[in-house]
Design brief:
Helix content: over 70%
Shape: globular
Strand content: under 5%
Number of helices: 7
Radius of gyration: 22 Å
Number of strands: 0
Distance between the termini: 68 Å
Largest sheet: none
């Protein structure tokens, strides 16, 4: 039984390694490019280097001509937008309009209309900052050749609509 499990794991690991090698070879990624993240920041962890390598490989499959600086810029923008999203979620949890049912399954969310003007203002600004970040990321990914024109137009319209129809801003204007 143990031999079967070990053999299965070894096969899966081999397949994963081959996939990475083939993806790197097919996309024309040199070992220098894969090691670049380590030379830019020697303190970067191996999991972060692996993430960078995976992102670079992925972006190269979509646009083989994408530059290393474009990938780094996209990754940094994505990280910023994800950070804003986490801040927004923390605010919603703090104000009680978002409830973590894993901690308290019977807790009901607070009605946003019960929030103070200051709380609504913070949420409104955070939502606007989030959607502006999403728009900035979308624009950068389109310019880098990662997002096609049709998807770009549709997503841009949706993101602008979400930003412009900010529920918390509407509550402030009542």
């Amino acid at each position: 039984m143990k031999k079967t499990i070990i053999t299965s794991l070894a096969i899966l690991i081999s397949i994963g390694g081959l996939t990475t090698v083939l993806a790197s070879t097919k996309t024309g990624i040199s070992q220098d490019e894969l090691a670049h993240s380590k030379t830019v920041n020697p303190d970067i962890s191996s999991s972060e280097t692996e993430t960078y390598q995976n992102e670079l490989t992925y972006f190269k499959t979509i646009n083989p001509n994408i530059s290393r600086s474009q990938v780094e810029s996209l990754m940094k923008l994505r990280e910023q937008v994800d950070g804003i999203s986490k801040q927004l979620e923390r605010l919603e949890l703090e104000y009680g309009i978002l409830v973590d049912n894993t901690k308290d399954p019977n807790k009901e969310p607070k009605n946003p209309e019960e929030l103070t003007v200051e709380q609504l203002n913070k949420l409104s600004q955070a939502y606007e900052k989030f959607w502006n970040g999403e728009l900035e990321f979308l624009e950068a990914s389109y310019k880098a050749g990662i997002t096609n024109e049709n998807d770009y137009k549709i997503d841009k319209e949706s993101f602008e609509d979400a930003r412009d129809n900010n529920y918390y801003k509407e509550l402030l204007n009542k």
